[in-house]
UniProtKB/TrEMBL annotation:
Domain of life: Bacteria
Name assigned to this protein: DUF418 domain-containing protein
Transmembrane regions listed in the UniProt entry: 35-56, 76-95, 115-132, 138-154, 166-185, 227-245, 266-287, 293-319, 340-359, 365-384
PANTHER family the record matches: INNER MEMBRANE PROTEIN
Chain ranges of the DUF418 domain: 248-406
UniProt key word Membrane: yes
Amino acid sequence: MGRQPDTDHHLGGAVPSAAVRTRQDRPARIPEVDALRGFALMGILLVNALMMAGPYGLGTIPDPGASAFDRGVEGVVQTLAVGKFYLMFSFLFGYSFTLQLTSAERAGTSAVPRLLRRSLGLLVLGVLHAVLLYTGDILMTYAVLGLVLIAVRNCTPGAALRAARILYGGLGAALLLVGSATLLMSDAETAEADAELAEDLPVLVARYRGDASSVVRANISLLPDQFLAALLMSGFVLAAFLVGLHCGKLRLLADTGNHRARMRRILVIGAAVGLPGSLFMALALSGPLGPRWALFATMVGMVTAPALTAAYVCGMLLLMNTSRGARIAALFAPAGRMALTNYLSQSLVMALVFTAYGLALYDRLSPAVVVLGALVLYAIQLALSSRLMARHRYGPVEWLLRTVTLARLPKDRDRSAAI
């Protein structure tokens, strides 16, 4: 599998190899890391599809008409995907930040103006995405928290890792404490709270099935709740940024072959911690445990999700160091190179399917059909990405963001990081 001689990064960042250099002393792409980003796109799509398909997405509110099979499908997605893949993107975003710094230094320019322009570009894209397509946008969070990375850009790798541990530990303890308090609620109190949440659902369904203007109004009406959720999760995102920053400063992903034993340990420990927590969340939200356990189990799932994310990252890197895994990397990598374009186009396609922009199938499809459709869409994206990346250096949105970042049109010889 040949390495592409450039270091562009898209929604997380490609990782340059310290061992492999082009004749111009430019770092080469590492296809395995592009493939990681492409793999994360699949998990993001499965979660977002169920959230965009109807008001009962992933058990946030109990669906009285859901069959056991529907709940089983949601349970699988909750166990394996919810809360894991956006953290993988966040880790890669933090890693690529170090490459942005190196790129600016190599170009003889100040990194800060570039990084601020990139954050502004992500913020604008995120606002448009949230208002027009999907309120569960992550780009605005990345744009804002990216400012923290700029502020701490000169920290040592050890300081970045210590800060990540403190942040994760403090937020995790707080979430578990809040979740534990909800166990004191009676079943009647829990049912009453769910009933209050469900009162507004018919209006939401009507808006998403109405017309284009009503879709926008529905998205705007959901933004306050989404901002609260983003604030809640921002600590984990920032912790993942800092872990990525730590690894990027040490170039740990530039030669994963030297870290196989460590990655195996992370894989085993991460799966042992993350899978039970995620399964507990699924059993509460879509299984037999019931609504009383829902919030506490959700908090447990959120706190243990980083462990499963780490297991996924290490497991994929170990797999892709095998001959069969190299073929998997070749399949996922093109989609990862244009991840920002793919991420936004996923939302566009789903908005056309589920809202009044197109077919208006909001709350009309079962979770199994939604998941199957999402996998078909992802397969199409893999094929299209492969063709586009064989002919072009950037995806369309990556090219646009790169233009904003550099404050000029990209030139073919530009090989510095884009996002």
